[in-house]
UniProtKB/TrEMBL annotation:
It comes from Paenibacillus etheri. InterPro entries: Beta-lactam-related, Beta-lactam/transpept-like, Diverse_Enzym_Activities. Keywords: Hydrolase. Residues 45-281 form the Beta-lactamase-related domain. GO terms for molecular function: hydrolase activity. It holds the Pfam family Beta-lactamase. This is Serine hydrolase. The keyword Hydrolase applies.
Length: 301
């Protein structure tokens, strides 16, 4: 086991509200820090990366393709706007949504807006919003895009993302009694709302590192994990938020990629080093958490 003392000291000195850390290398737990009990916590946008796994399964089953459009899945709501064909929301593809290049300057369905739109048909609302630029050109982080991904999966497979993933992902990983928030119309939120603990999150990271293989069973297609964790679009940002974006995954420095959620949930996967680092926090200075990981944990691996 690596010594986590320096990491914990730096976390305290920097005033970072980190709860739990799990470090795996070559599938073995090599580092552990519990500054609080490792209870299930809201994973915020780490949830997006789980939703992405459901996409890969639905594609494998022939229910969707990356080129499937919103119009194909929701023809009743994809009305034609006074815009060029390339600027019609109904023509947005699943791939546009996955890499968050849908063409909205102000992404829909932020947390505050979701509360205000409680009684609105969210699918219809999303498809009524005009695009500000052609899709595929620019990355704009959008929880609304992931909500629509979840809606597309549910419409295509006949189950919510949560229920779809229970036998295919959660149960094999030993993650039981999964709590995942739904929209007012019964769609798994997708972009947020999943609750798991750090140890469970580390299992998800190990599954990603093993390219979907778990205890001799291929849970998620390996090619899908390889695809979604590679850079699919450039983005503007600093540090670990400026390395590009895949499909519902961020790229990191140190040849790693990650799922991450607001206030410091991380599932960092470094394939070359065979490392998984799972973290739960309640801390807005998220880059400082990763900086401390790179400074105090990474050199020990």
């Amino acid at each position: 086991m690596i010594n986590m003392t320096r990491f914990e000291t730096q976390i305290r000195e920097r005033g970072l509200n980190v709860f739990n850390v799990r470090v795996l290398q070559n599938g073995t737990l090599v580092g552990k820090s519990d500054l609080a009990e490792d209870i299930r916590r809201l994973q915020h946008s780490v949830s997006k990366s789980f939703t992405c796994m459901a996409v890969g399964l639905a594609i494998e089953e022939g229910k969707l393709t990356p080129d499937t459009t919103l119009r194909e899945v929701f023809p009743d709501y994809a009305f034609t706007q006074e815009a060029l064909p390339s600027m019609q929301p109904g023509e947005l593809t699943l791939f546009d949504l996955l890499r968050m290049s849908t063409g909205h300057d102000s992404p829909p369905f932020w947390a505050e807006e979701r509360l205000a739109l409680k009684d609105v048909n969210w699918i219809q609302h999303y498809l009524s919003l005009p695009l500000d630029r052609p899709p595929g050109e620019q990355f704009t982080y959008s929880s609304g895009d992931t909500i629509m991904i979840s809606a597309m999966i549910q419409a295509s497979v006949g189950q919510t993302v949560r229920d779809y993933l229970v036998p295919r992902l959660f149960a094999p990983l030993g993650i039981e009694n999964v709590d995942w928030e739904t929209t007012p119309h019964g769609i798994t939120l997708g972009c947020a709302g999943l609750q798991i603990n750090t140890e469970e999150l580390s299992r998800f990271g190990q599954l990603l590192l093993q390219k979907g293989m778990w205890q001799g069973q291929q849970l998620i297609p390996a090619a899908w994990i390889e695809f979604v964790t590679q850079k699919q679009i450039e983005n503007d940002g600093d540090g670990d938020w400026g390395q590009g974006y895949g499909c519902q995954f961020w790229l990191c420095t140190h040849d790693a990629y990650r799922a991450d959620g607001a206030h410091g949930q991380f599932c960092v996967v470094a394939p070359d080093a065979q490392v998984v680092i799972a973290i739960n926090s309640m801390e807005d200075n998220m880059q400082a958490i990763l900086d401390t990981v790179w400074e105090e944990i990474w050199p020990l691996l």
